[in-house]
Amino acid sequence: MKVLVIGGAGYIGSHVVKELMAKGHKVTVFDNLSSGLKQNLFKENGFIKGDILKVKDLEKAFGKGFDAFVHLAAFKAAGESMVCPEKYSINNITGTLNILNAAVKFKCLNMVFSSSAATFGEPQYVPIDENHPKNPENYYGFTKLKIEEFMAWYEKLKGLKFAALRYFNAAGYDPEGVLYGLEKNPANLLPIVMEVACGKRDKMKIFGNDYPTRDGTCIRDYIHVTDLASAHVLALEYISSRKESLTLNLGTGNGITVTEMVDAARRITGKEIKAEYVERRPGDPAQLTAKSDLAKEKLGWEAKYSDVDTLIGSTYSAYKKFYKM
Ligand code: UFG
């Protein structure tokens, strides 16, 4: 298929592009390179430097004729979204509506969308299945939930078929080592652990050790970005061949605590990784794990790279390569 990947120069987008190429799809990347990196582009693919806030850019891109598109262009810092909701309204909501309108105008009616576990908010039970109530606790999660609703309306009114993929904690890097462009100003756990391991920061903070979990630190469901990428390709093939939309959770169901993650990183990198326990970070649920049986049932998808050693090992390799260590 001819696939337009919007946000394809970013961390997850570039892994999706690599997987699409491996499965024989013809890819064009659309990205404004605000957080995406030139380094993440493959020279075999088309590239359009464009902005989702510019309708003209989108119409020019969709005008080239695509069978499907993947939309991963969004701001994703939950904390920031509570301070600057306007940024998230404009980029995530307005940007997505621009994309949807351009897509239907040019009859590109198969869409895979990066949604998030942030659509659920504080879990009422774990593991979280697709039907768990949606009560986002931050504005970022709210934007993702609203976009899921927009897609459902465009399905009814315009015949769009979509896959909303709700990622849990995306982590890891391309196990083949081709992609190692690091995110700018990362705030997530593993990149921060790696910055300490690589000597880019002296120590890290572990936010809270008084949660009701086995060691008092938060439990998360880390899913390797290459596993996420394979789910995108399977979902794209599913919705376009069956003409049926999908909403899926993507995680492994295995919860890992923050302390376990840091200890594993010490073992794998052989570095001390200084960490201190500090106050809880506001808005962090004690445990977030996914029930992703539906992805297996619908797509035959299974996580292959999401064990702790591959998550951390592949990330450490990317950091060492990037910093030429
Ligand atoms: N953490 C630390 N120290 C740090 C950074 C993080 O202790 O320096 C802890 C957090 O408190 C949390 C865990 O590590 O307990 C994971 O935190 P991240 O910031 O890496 O990820 P979140 O779970 O907060 O959020 C991520 C994505 C969201 C997504 C969510 C879904 O960033 O977009 O996973 O599970 F919605």
Provide the descriptors you would attach to this structure in a database record.
alpha/beta; Rossmann fold; UDP-galactose 4-epimerase, domain 1; 10 helices; globular; binds uridine-5'-diphosphate-4-deoxy-4-fluoro-alpha-D-galactose
Task: Please give a structural write-up.
- The protein is an alpha/beta fold.
- It has helices at 11-22, 55-62, 78-83, 85-105, 139-158, 189-197, 225-242, 258-269, 293-299, 308-322; strands spanning 2-6, 26-31, 46-49, 68-71, 110-116, 161-167, 169-171, 203-207, 219-220, 222-224, 246-250, 256-257, 274-278, 287-288.
- A 7-stranded parallel sheet has the order 3-2-1-4-5-6-11, sandwiched between helices. A 3-stranded mixed sheet has the order 12-9-14. It has a two-stranded parallel ribbon with strand order 7-10.
- It binds uridine-5'-diphosphate-4-deoxy-4-fluoro-alpha-D-galactose.
- Uridine-5'-diphosphate-4-deoxy-4-fluoro-alpha-D-galactose binds at residues 76, 78, 116-118, 168-169, 187-189, 192, 204-207, 218, 220, 258, 281, 284, 288.
How many distinct folded domains?
2
**SSE series:** EHEEHEHHEHEEHEEEHEEHEEHH
Specify the number of helices: 10
The coarse overall form would be globular
Radius of gyration, in Å, reads 19 Å
Q: In brief, what are we looking at here?
A:
With 325 residues, this protein is of the alpha/beta class.
Architecture blueprint of SSEs:
Elements: E1 2-6, H1 11-22, E2 26-31, E3 46-49, H2 55-62, E4 68-71, H3 78-83, H4 85-105, E5 110-116, H5 139-158, E6 161-167, E7 169-171, H6 189-197, E8 203-207, E9 219-220, E10 222-224, H7 225-242, E11 246-250, E12 256-257, H8 258-269, E13 274-278, E14 287-288, H9 293-299, H10 308-322
Parallel strand pairs: 1-2, 1-4, 2-3, 4-5, 5-6, 6-11, 7-10, 8-13, 9-14
Antiparallel strand pairs: 9-12
Helix pairs in contact: 1-7, 2-4, 4-5, 6-8, 6-10, 8-10
Bound molecules: uridine-5'-diphosphate-4-deoxy-4-fluoro-alpha-D-galactose.
Residues 76, 78, 116-118, 168-169, 187-189, 192, 204-207, 218, 220, 258, 281, 284, 288 line the site of uridine-5'-diphosphate-4-deoxy-4-fluoro-alpha-D-galactose.
